[in-house]
Amino acid sequence: MQRKKRSRVTLQQVAEHAGVSRATASLIVRDSPNISEKTRKKVLESMRELGYVYDRVAANLRSQRSSTVGIIITDIANTFFSELLIGVHHALEKEGYTVLLGTTFDSDSKQDRLLSTMLEHRVGGVILCPVSATSKETIDRIKKLDIPIVLAVRELAEANCDYVGVNYKDGAELAVNHLILKGHRRIAFLGGRSESSTWKERFEGYGLALHKAGIEIDASLLVDSAPTRDGGMEAVQQVLSQPNPPTAAFCFSDLVAFGVMLGLRDVGLTPGQDMAVVGFDNVPEADVVNPPLTSVSSFARQIGSNAANLLHQRILDFEREHQRIILNPELIERDSSFVFRKK
């Protein structure tokens, strides 16, 4: 009679026997120094009791796959993403990863091509800053291939994966409250694509601040556009053509705000004097433009480092629970927002 072959003991079984997570057990078999000696001894004892044998060939194959990861952003010209990339690189390089970068310019077709290319090169994981029109099917396609993915900056409903972002609603409310306290009541919301989750969350905060102050939303002061300098210029030109133009603008991003300032100057108006301008992101240039831009800080580097750390954890333990990290925004007041005095 042929003896039944004994099934191989898995690392998950070792982890359960030792009462630790699979990620912790994985770190121990790879001799990580970041584990306490007490935990290490407990896990090693479980390995001996269960007869666990580390499959180094399989581990090497996994390591080869995960040594390169991809990050896809929407616009390299936006300094927010440059700062985010610094955070990603600093965190991943410490773990020995090589990073492949792709830029979509908010194009769904470009995003699909970049994802296909990265998957063909068998990246070990992807950090994705999704384009405005990203569908849940795009994420499902990656997850079906067992590729770890972390979303950053823009969240997708029902995507069911790790995410790092900012409380955009609270940030927008901070910005608009600031303008209301300065005496402004006609406050435009300029820039960004209205179909994106980040625009919707900012709009929610914008509307909430107005509602609390007893100010009705005026649809003519809502102008969505490309989240770029050109988009900001076009948006401000549109609201300035109205019979009763706004005295202040809350902008989707600092990049849009820079465009708004250029648009104001094009028609002979001075930003920070003829119209108050508030941005979102607090990129480094916000402090050096003229006038310096009041902005909501969204901590781009921290988003990047958190996203990188989540991806690393997901690569180590694909089955771990999903995490959602939301950073709290902070308003940085500068000279572009002024006290409104009725003329």
UniProtKB/TrEMBL annotation:
<feature type="domain" description="HTH lacI-type">
    <location>
        <begin position="9"/>
        <end position="63"/>
    </location>
</feature>
<keyword id="KW-0804">Transcription</keyword>
<dbReference type="GO" id="GO:0003677">
    <property type="term" value="F:DNA binding"/>
</dbReference>
<protein>
    <submittedName>
        <fullName>LacI family DNA-binding transcriptional regulator</fullName>
    </submittedName>
</protein>
<dbReference type="InterPro" id="IPR000843">
    <property type="entry name" value="HTH_LacI"/>
</dbReference>
<dbReference type="InterPro" id="IPR001761">
    <property type="entry name" value="Peripla_BP/Lac1_sug-bd_dom"/>
</dbReference>
<dbReference type="Pfam" id="PF00532">
    <property type="entry name" value="Peripla_BP_1"/>
</dbReference>
<dbReference type="InterPro" id="IPR028082">
    <property type="entry name" value="Peripla_BP_I"/>
</dbReference>
<keyword id="KW-0238">DNA-binding</keyword>
<dbReference type="InterPro" id="IPR010982">
    <property type="entry name" value="Lambda_DNA-bd_dom_sf"/>
</dbReference>
<keyword id="KW-0805">Transcription regulation</keyword>
<dbReference type="Pfam" id="PF00356">
    <property type="entry name" value="LacI"/>
</dbReference>
